[in-house]
Amino acid sequence: MPDIRAAVINQLNQVVKDMLASIAFYKLLGVQLELSTRADWNKHHASTVLANGFRFELDSESFAAQWSPGWKEERGRSGGIMFFGLEKRDDVDRLYNRIVEAGLHSEQIPTDAFWGERYAIVSDPDGNSVGLMSGIEPERRGKPPAPPSPQVE
Residue 109 in 3-state DSSP? Predict the structure, then answer.
């Protein structure tokens, strides 16, 4: 039996409560989502293929429950953070300011990371974490902090 090649991440379906608010948020990031040609589907699905070939889709909670019977609307926040790459360090600050000025929540102000990138984290309209990150600049790398202490439960 032939070996299976490593899987490649090629699509993200973000489940959202308010399609129009989510489309407006991702538009701030420069993502132009397309609605269905059928008006009755517009509150349930929007999609696009990004310049790097990655497929990004928004689905309503009720539609997600159709294609994923295990989906539970009461899941709360996801454990992941989707990051959007930006060309320049200053772009992180500019986009972060545009998003916060639009009334969305800041989780992490623009910060220079020890690994050489500048990043910020905001919340989308559903409270999902969305990161903004510049590329790594090796000359900006610094000493990493001490690792986190183990959590006591």
Answer: strand
Q: Cα–Cα distances in Å, from 152 out to 79, 97, 115, 149?
A: 20, 36, 28, 9
Domains along the sequence of the chain with CATH: 1-63 (3.10.180.10), 80-143 (3.10.180.10)
Q: What is the dihedral of CA 10, 16, 21, 25, to 10 degrees?
A: -30
pLDDT recorded at residue 4? 65
Helix 89-101 / helix 19-28 crossing angle, nearest 10 deg: 150
pLDDT above 70: residue 73: no
Give the DSSP letter of residue 116: S
- Residue 78 pLDDT greater than 50, yes or no: no
Question: How many alpha carbons fall within 13 Å on the CB side of residue 67?
Answer: 9
Q: Is 22 exposed, middle or buried (0-12, 13-18, 19+ CB in 10 A)?
A: buried
